[in-house]
Write a structure and sequence with these properties.
The complex is a heterodimer of chains A (484) and B (151). Chain A is α+β, with helices and mostly antiparallel strands and 484 residues long. Chain A is built from 13 helices and twelve strands. The longest helix of chain A has 63 residues. Chain B is α/β, with parallel strands linked by helices and 151 residues long. Classes of the chains: A alpha+beta (484), B alpha/beta (151).
């Protein structure tokens, strides 16, 4: 036997004992006062009812049996004997037993259902949610502790006394008739309500209504569960406000950036148009002067003239490269799958002039397809290959290798390696800067924009560029492009 | 190849005008050149109005058009020419400093016949002008309504 069973055994025993004592008392009093057998039987039935009200079915049955025994012994002739001879007396005893059985049964049942209700109410009181029941006239019939704590009214103050919507000053999200119609049709309703507490504070609750029907299907009550979502609503509102502000700020910044971009475009446009014209004039007139004054110019004069023309040409190249560089930053990238092999072929074709009279050993490995802007990637390759050609110029036998290197899983790494003059790794950070040059102009010509252009192109593809080199031992340039 | 079409130059910069004329002269192409100095004057010439009411009523064989011009810019002139039934057949060559893609696209959209970026190098510039002059004023058969003179 476990503890619970032990407890129940002793409780039943106790109830039997108390019932027995009560029966004995009734018997003693009735016998002394010489009351009728009917009165005695009625008093016994009251004892049985009381026992079944407080105890188990078993103890009521035991007490009933004791009462029958007493009836037979003390009140049915022959007195002081359990013998019952008259058939009417047998019927009377059976009637008594039946009546006590019925009383025990109904009392126990009523007690049990009351216990169930009490248990349910106790459970509902455990939750923090506010739960209450209202009848079809909106009068509150149940009010749990959550409701007491949340709204500030006790159950005594509201149950059977007030109507819900009036007490809580409910604000509905839709006309009440519509809500009720939906509730009757579906048996439930959900929505957000605004309620006012006892202290006058307004709250937003997420409300769930469930309709209770009786056995024949008529609606009898509504169970309403409410959750305070005021804080959540406030947070949502806050988030919405922040989002709006953020959007506003983004719009402002975008407008600013657009203005700056426009200015920048006007600037490059002006460079493109206006800066080249005087340059062209300088070159043109110098050329004309050279021609018309050729006879009176000495060697020195002719050299000066040549310097002017050279400088004009160099500035023209610089402007062109700079404009191309800025165009890459502004142009939309149009990405497709492109064959790197094909691109390298095209790039080699484009720089063929630079290889005239040179002895170059090309090694071109297997090249995959890339996802990127075709013309931009080709420009990057042209710049890198052209560099390799340029910086191997001092080698009787130049070696240039183009291939794919190991990289991270989600990127393709391409390298261009040469056995040219290389560079000191000390200056590796300067390689990709605009106008940054690691060689004197008389050694290797150039505007210092080529590698900056390469870097800008690769960055616009979401990739990286880097380089390795040793003075006089060649250089390797790498770039990576994401696979998709 | 002994007929020479008239070349209409629309150019605001006097130095550019001089260098262009010098280049044309070098190849004997400068006889039939008319220079207008802004978009408005160019349109006056084409419509025989303003200073040009008395000119002979024929169209140039080619128009060398700068884009950045005072009053009415090159693209506007181009648009006016290409949307006019009487003028739209005149070949127009944009001759500009600008390598800007948007200028190029706009010009071609308006129906330009050629787009040439003025080279900074004078030799290249002279070459470009020469070839333009030879092609448009000599080799190319201009549309009816323009006059060719014996060269």
């Amino acid at each position: 036997m476990n503890l619970n069973q032990t407890y129940r055994f002793w409780r039943s025993g106790g109830q039997c004992l108390i019932g027995g004592i009560a029966v004995a008392l009734v018997t003693f009093v009735c016998f002394r006062l010489n009351v009728s057998i009917t009165t005695a039987a009625l008093l016994y039935l009251i004892v049985v009812a009381l026992v079944s009200l407080g105890g188990s079915f078993l103890s009521s049955a035991v007490v009933s049996m004791i009462a029958v025994g007493c009836l037979a012994y003390y009140f049915l002739p022959p007195v002081f004997s359990f013998r019952v001879s008259d058939p009417f007396d047998v019927v009377a005893i059976i009637t008594f037993l039946t009546t006590s059985g019925v009383i025990t049964h109904s009392v126990t049942r009523a007690r049990k259902s009351a216990e169930v209700l009490r248990e349910q109410a106790r459970l509902l009181n455990l939750t923090h949610d506010t739960i209450f029941v209202r009848d079809m006239n909106d009068v509150i019939t149940y009010w749990n502790r959550g409701a007491e704590e949340f709204y500030g009214w006790t159950a005594e103050e509201v149950v059977s006394k007030v109507t819900t919507h009036q007490r809580l000053q409910t604000v509905f999200p839709a006309p009440l008739e519509d809500i009720n119609e939906k509730l009757l049709r579906a048996g439930r309703w959900e929505g957000e309500l605004r309620h006012t507490k006892r202290d006058g504070m307004q709250f937003v609750v997420a409300s769930r209504w469930a309709l209770q029907r009786d056995e024949s299907g008529n609606p009898i009550a509504v169970l309403e569960t409410n959750n305070d979502i005021t804080e959540r609503k406030r947070a949502e509102e806050e988030i919405r406000k922040l989002n709006d502000e953020l959007e506003q700020r983004v719009i402002e910044r975008t407008t600013e950036l657009e203005a700056i971009n426009k200015e920048l475009q006007a600037f490059t446009y002006s460079v493109s148009h206006d800066l080249r014209a005087p340059l062209r004039h300088m070159a043109g007139y110098a050329e004309l002067l050279q021609k018309s004054a050729a006879s009176i110019l000495d060697e020195k004069g002719r050299r000066y003239m040549m310097m002017i023309l050279e400088s004009a040409k160099r500035m023209g190249d610089l402007i062109d490269d700079l404009l191309a560089f800025s165009r890459i930053g502004r142009a939309e990238t149009q990405k497709t799958m492109v064959s790197l092999e094909q691109l390298v072929k095209e790039a080699l074709n484009e720089v063929r002039q630079e290889t005239d009279g040179r002895n170059i050993g090309w090694r071109i490995g297997a090249l995959p397809d890339l996802y990127g802007d075709r013309s931009m990637l080709r420009l990057a390759l042209v710049n890198l290959i052209s560099n390799a050609i340029k910086f191997t110029r001092t080698r009787p036998q130049a070696e240039i290798e183009i291939g794919c290197a190991d990289g991270k899983e989600d990127e393709i790494v391409v390298f261009i390696r040469d056995n040219g003059v290389g560079f000191d790794m000390k200056y590796v950070n300067k390689l990709f800067g605009v106008f940054q040059r690691l060689h004197r102009a008389e050694e290797f010509e150039g505007t210092g924009i080529g590698l900056a252009t390469v870097q800008r192109i690769i960055h616009r593809h979401g990739g990286r560029v880097w380089a390795e080199g040793l003075v006089d031992r060649g250089a390797t340039f790498y770039f990576s492009v994401p696979k998709s | 190849m002994n007929e020479l079409g008239r070349i209409l130059i629309v150019e605001d910069d006097p130095k550019d005008v001089e260098l262009t004329l010098t280049a044309l002269e070098e190849y004997n192409l400068a006889n039939e050149v008319v220079v207008t100095r802004d978009g408005a004057e160019a349109l006056d010439y084409l419509y025989c109005r303003g200073n040009f009411t008395t000119r002979t009523n024929d169209n140039p064989a080619v128009l060398l058009l700068d884009l950045k011009l005072p009053k009415i810019d090159g693209l506007e002139v181009l648009q006016q020419i290409k949307s006019d039934e009487k003028l739209r057949m005149i070949p127009v060559v944009v001759l500009t400093s600008s390598r800007e893609e948007k200028d190029m696209v706009a010009s071609y959209k308006l129906g330009v016949n050629a787009y040439v970026v003025k080279p900074v190098d004078f030799h290249e510039f002279v070459n470009a002008i020469k070839e333009l002059g030879v092609f448009w004023a000599v080799i190319n058969e201009p549309p009816p309504g323009s006059v060719k003179k014996h060269h």
